[in-house]
Specification:
alpha/beta; TIM Barrel; 7-stranded parallel beta sheet; 10 helices; globular
Length: about 250
């Protein structure tokens, strides 16, 4: 289980719960900056990765979006910079951000993964490379296409494969079997019927929650704020964390 904090405080709290690794969330961080997902510039994201890696003793996986470049050379250079922040893993998406052509052509997407692999290997470290097939998230819920892309990314040097948006046990099992023995990361972003144990029984090796925790925090903040604005009452504070607990967590006694 690799939950996704969006700032140093949320990272340190998750570490206190005993999780063994963490992952950043592009959406959660962007919202904290008053920006939409994928709306933060590369240099600010690199600074965020460095801040997050310094905030926790746990291995940190970076949500590095689509590598902040279209061409493989640009992806490789940006991956090199990301590795220098101290992260332990990094994911690269194959989405373009263009609604008329939402995915990079397969050959180009594969070259982008290869460029990321070369950059990691040249760094001399052991940063994990996670390759993402965004088919289900961009309106192309084609299982065969997804498996074909993930298989190609595995052959291009990805250590772990990830298809955000898949939910059914049949799809999960098919992807796990298709890329075996490489591990699969599953995104869980909404309440569902599968427990962590059931997900593990399907062969999934990693689970992350993307912006789920950030959205949960925003939900509490928005409900409490709306109640004050619309009714002048303060019931939204009923489930608030205590200041004493937060101060104790962050070393304030």
């Amino acid at each position: 289980m690799i939950p996704n904090p969006w700032d140093a405080g949320s990272a340190r709290y998750l570490q206190s719960l005993g999780f063994k690794a963490l992952a950043t969330t592009s959406s959660g961080f962007a919202w904290s900056q008053g920006r939409p997902d994928n709306g933060v510039a590369r240099d600010r994201v690199l600074a965020h990765l460095a801040e997050m890696a310094a905030a926790t003793d746990l291995p940190l996986n970076a949500d590095f979006e689509s590598g902040f470049a279209a061409d493989p050379a640009g992806v490789g250079e940006n991956v090199r910079l990301a590795v220098e922040t101290g992260i332990a893993g990094l994911s690269i998406e194959d989405s373009t951000g263009n609604s008329s052509a939402p995915l990079f052509e397969l050959n180009e997407a594969v070259e982008r993964v290869r460029a990321a692999r070369r950059a990691i290997d040249k760094s001399g470290g052991d940063t994990l490379l996670i390759a993402r097939a965004e088919c289900f998230l961009v309106g192309l819920p084609d299982l065969d296409m997804t498996i074909g892309r993930l298989t190609a990314y595995s052959n291009a040097g990805a250590d772990c494969l990830y298809a955000p948006g898949i939910r059914s046990t049949e799809h999960i099992r098919a992807i796990v079997q298709s890329v075996h023995p490489k591990p699969v990361n599953l995104l869980v972003s909404a309440p569902g019927n599968l427990s962590l144990r059931q997900i593990a029984d399907l062969g999934v090796r990693r689970v992350s929650v993307g912006g789920g925790l950030a959205r949960a925090a925003w939900g509490g903040f928005m409900r409490a704020s709306r109640e004050i604005a619309e009714h002048g009452t303060f019931g939204g504070f009923a489930d608030a964390a205590s200041g004493h607990e937060l101060n104790a967590l962050f070393g304030g006694g």
